[in-house]
Design goal:
Elements lengths: L2 E9 L15 E6 L2 E5 L6 H8 L9 E3 L5 H4 L2 H5 L6 E4 L8 E4 L2 E4 L4 H9 L6 E3 L4 E4 L2 E3 L16 E2 L16 E5 L2 E6 L6 H12 L4 E7 L7 H11 L6 E5 L4 H10 L12 E6 L1
Parallel strand pairs: 3-4, 4-5, 5-8, 13-14, 14-15
Antiparallel strand pairs: 1-2, 1-16, 2-3, 6-7, 6-11, 9-10, 10-12, 12-13
Length: 282
């Protein structure tokens, strides 16, 4: 029997108004039947403020899923856990790696902020943390992919991320993962940043789920600053999955988002803070 699923964007680079705040980050509230799941937490406490405005009680959170260990996805974890006491945290162990971005001849730390890191490390050996190196069921019917194999070479272009401040050890973000569930019309996949590659991820979840068609993709597609050739190849590959709804946001980039809307004007929808969509999961 299908169960109702409602996904509300709590944090995104843009907001719908009504006093909602925006920031460079992303967070989704997922009502999966009777279960409440938070996917990423943005980079600050505005996730808590926006939830209050939208009438969402974070104390009801059953699970928090972290897409990867960057500050704009984990910075709100500390204030959220001050409210969501019963929530388990699902994350890849690599998310705790120290991370740096190298641009313009200098590096800056972009990993999990110290406050959130200390909370995670304090629970590392307890059942509060579920490590998701491989595909993991959050609740019956709701899954996180775990580590995604990089099989499409055109999606491998992470040259600005490193595991050390000297920018000598590249960071390929093996911890990047997506949340997904099946519907009568195909899979729904929710992305944090898709550092593993949008198409790589879709190839992987269709393989491990045994479901060929993907109905909806939403979140950050990490195409900002990508070449026109890469964006074109990603958009061309969308057709392989029969995708009907596309919600580009966060790190997708303005140029790539415009290209999605140009190619698929009737399939694209807004992913701003305050927006929501509903599905029937099976």
């Amino acid at each position: 029997m299908a169960q109702k699923v409602k996904i509300t964007t709590l944090v995104e680079n843009t907001a719908e108004g009504n006093g909602l705040l925006s920031e460079h980050g992303i967070s989704f509230w997922i009502e999966f039947g009777e279960h409440k799941v938070l996917f990423d937490t943005g980079q600050s406490g505005i996730v808590v403020r926006n939830a209050e405005i939208l009438g969402i009680n974070l104390a009801e959170t059953d699970a928090i899923v972290i897409s990867h260990g960057h500050f704009d996805h984990t910075g709100g974890l500390e204030p959220v856990l001050n409210i969501a006491h019963k929530a388990k945290i699902f994350m890849h162990p690599g998310a705790l790696d120290k991370r740096y971005s190298f641009r313009g001849g200098s590096s800056r730390a972009i990993g999990i902020p110290n406050g959130s890191r200390k909370i995670i490390e304090s629970h590392a050996d307890t059942n509060k943390i579920v490590w998701t190196k491989g595909p993991t069921q959050i609740f019956p019917g709701l899954f996180v992919s775990g580590e995604v194999p990089r099989t499409n070479k055109f999606e491998i272009d992470e040259q600005e991320f490193f595991l050390d401040e000297d920018a000598s050890e590249p960071d390929i973000l093996t911890d990047d993962q997506t949340l997904y569930f099946n519907t009568q019309h195909g899979l729904v996949s929710i992305f944090g940043c898709a550092h593993a590659g949008l198409i790589n991820t879709l190839d992987y979840i269709t393989k491990i789920s045994g479901v060929e068609h993907v109905h909806t993709i939403m979140g950050g597609f990490h195409l900002i600053g990508s070449s026109k050739e890469r964006v074109s190849k990603v958009i061309d590959n969308i057709e392989r999955f029969g995708i009907q709804r596309i919600g580009p946001g966060h790190c997708t980039g303005v140029e790539a988002e415009l290209e999605f809307r140009k190619q698929y004007p009737k399939r694209c929808f807004m992913c701003s803070a305050g927006t929501s969509c509903e599905f029937g999961a099976i």
